[in-house]
């Protein structure tokens, strides 16, 4: 049985979907700006100037913040941090959740029951508490280690812990989805035939089950990245994420919130980081929907 993801028509259906093209264009532009922006634009994200809290202009497209730093450069820096956190956290959840769900669904029986009860127990624990405890427990030690071994990574200890914490939490839903698919697939004729031929369990999982899960897993992966980005932004907004002068979209929104007052509104400090984050999240969600339609045309409305 061939994997839905391997069907030659899947890519063609994806590229014919206007939502997919628009989402890929937006994501490609944001990634390109995040990577190449610092090489092209003159202002570094940490460079302070005397032009404090200036409105958007030809010199500063997104205006400047309270310290005179160019907001456009800081939004691009925030894009790098938020996208890296989202991608790395989602990949960790992908590896753990797929492996866990494959084993649970394939073995079945008492092992499956125990593994799923463990998932339910972990689901009942508020993940924000776990992340906060991990940050306050490990961040000081990791910060000292990074300062000694890699000084250029100073200030990113909390980000690394957030990546690991979110990756180790977000896999729970992935495991449930994979497990449900495996329970259905392992009763199919091609799996029963592989067992009758004496193929090993490892070969059946890797050669027959996993390829047929790729479509579902990839779709869910594109929806996990926005969830991780939102969690990181929320933590940074609360001051638990990346520290100044580094920036993420959440920390920029927090800075903008602090600059708002009844006398004068520095609207650009909130509008541009929020717009960048919203466009990215919308593009990722549209891409996930388009992938679902491309990999499973029967799911179309």
Explain what this protein looks like in three dimensions.
The chain is 73% helix and 0% strand. It is mainly α. Helix 2 crosses helix 10, helix 3 packs antiparallel against helix 4 and helix 6 (157-185) packs antiparallel against helix 8. It is globular and about 75 Å long. The chain starts with 7 loop residues before the first helix and ends in a 6-residue tail after the last helix. The model is unreliable at 1-6 (pLDDT under 50).
Helices and strands in order, then pairings?
Layout: H1 8-15, H2 18-40, H3 71-107, H4 109-124, H5 127-149, H6 157-185, H7 189-196, H8 201-237, H9 249-259, H10 268-295
Report the helical percentage. Answer: over 70%
Q: Which structural class do you get from the secondary structure elements?
A: mainly alpha
CATH fold name: MetI-like fold
Can you tell me the CATH architecture? Orthogonal Bundle
User: How would you sum up the global shape?
Assistant: globular
Per DSSP E runs of 2 or more residues, the count of β-strands stands at: 0
What percent of residues are in strands?
A: under 5%
Q: In CATH's first tier, which class applies?
A: Mainly Alpha
Summed up, the domain count is 1
- Please identify which CATH superfamily we are dealing with: MetI-like
Order of helices and strands: HHHHHHHHHH
Main sheet overview: none
Radius of gyration of CA atoms, rounded to a whole number: 22 Å
Low-confidence stretches: 1-6
Discrete helix count:
10
Distance between the termini: 26 Å
Mean pLDDT: 82
């Amino acid at each position: 049985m061939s994997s839905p993801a391997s069907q030659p028509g899947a890519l063609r259906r994806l590229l014919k979907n206007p939502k997919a093209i628009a989402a890929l264009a937006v994501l490609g532009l944001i990634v390109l700006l995040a990577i190449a922006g610092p090489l092209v634009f003159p202002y570094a994200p940490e460079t302070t100037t005397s032009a404090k809290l200036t409105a958007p202009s030809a010199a500063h497209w997104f205006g400047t913040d309270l310290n005179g730093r160019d907001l456009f450069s800081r939004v691009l820096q925030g894009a790098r941090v938020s996208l890296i956190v989202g991608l790395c956290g989602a990949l960790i959840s992908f590896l753990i959740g797929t492996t866990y769900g494959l084993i649970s669904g394939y073995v079945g029986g008492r092992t499956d029951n125990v593994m799923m009860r463990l998932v339910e127990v972990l689901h009942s624990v508020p993940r924000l508490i776990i992340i906060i405890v991990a940050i306050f427990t490990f961040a000081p030690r990791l910060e000292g280690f990074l300062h000694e071994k890699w000084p250029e990574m100073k200030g990113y200890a909390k980000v690394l812990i957030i990546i690991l914490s979110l990756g180790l939490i977000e896999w729970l839903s992935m495991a449930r989805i994979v497990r449900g698919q495996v329970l259905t697939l392992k009763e199919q004729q091609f799996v029963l035939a592989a067992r009758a031929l004496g193929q090993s369990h490892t070969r059946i999982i890797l050669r027959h089950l996993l390829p047929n899960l790729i479509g579902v897993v990839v779709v869910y992966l594109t929806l996990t990245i926005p969830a991780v980005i939102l969690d990181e932004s929320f933590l940074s907004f609360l001051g638990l994420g990346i520290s100044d002068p580094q920036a993420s979209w959440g920390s920029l929104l927090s800075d903008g919130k602090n600059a708002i007052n009844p006398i004068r509104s520095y609207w650009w400090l909130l509008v541009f980081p929020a717009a960048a984050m919203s466009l990215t999240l919308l593009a990722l969600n549209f891409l996930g929907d388009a992938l679902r339609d491309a990999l499973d045309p029967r799911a179309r409305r």
